[in-house]
Amino acid sequence: MSKNIQAVKGMNDILPASVDRKDKLPSSQLWSWFETTLRGVLQRYGYQYMLTPIVEPTALFVRGLGEVTDIVEKEMYSFTDSMNGDQLTLRPEATAGIVRAMVEHNALYNGPLRLWTMGPMFRHERPQKGRYRQFNQLDVEALGFAGPDVDAEIILMVRRLWQELGLVVGQHVRLELNSLGQPEERAAHRAALIAYLEGHADKLDEDGKRRLHSNPLRILDTKNPAMQDVVEAAPKLMDFLGEASLAHFNAVRAILDAAGLEYRINTRLVRGMDYYNLTVFEWVTDQLGSQGTVCGGGRYDGLFEQLGGKPTPAVGFGLGIERLLLLIDELGLAVPSSAPDVYAILPDAAALSQAMPVLEALRAEGVAVQMHAGGGSFKSQFKKADASGARFALVFGADELARGEVAVKPLRGDGEQVTRPLNTAAAWAADLRTA
Ligand code: ATP
Ligand code: MG
Question: What CATH architecture applies to the domain 28-181+241-331?
Answer without folding.
Answer: 2-Layer Sandwich (3.30)
